[in-house]
Sequence to fold (118 residues):
Amino acid sequence: MREQYPGAEIVKDVGSGLNYKRRGLKSLLERAMRGEQLQIVVAHRDRLARFGFELIEWIVQKNGGKILVLKQTNLSPEQELTNEGRCILHVFSCRMHGLRNYKTQVRKVLSEQETKAE
Fold:
């Protein structure tokens, strides 16, 4: 992408497309809402947002900008719904796994504190 858009500002976020609190996404939306005419280029639309892409696109366009998606996928409504369902299931299963790890860490810390107290 750098070769196609050499003067572009690169905005990187680490996180899920379901996370709307990502620093880069919030920055882009704030800039668009201040009236900056942004030209946003993404490889896939779900890199910007898994759901709500149309709303983000509307905000950017309302302020004179545009979003260019390089790799468009033409899926049937059934395929799109299936993919979205799988993605939601994957995200929440990862969250459950993370909660189990957190629970294990909390138990370990509490156990260590009890051992020190004795």
User: Anything to note?
Assistant: Residues 2 and 10 are 8 Å apart (CA to CA). The chain has two domains: 1-73, 74-118.
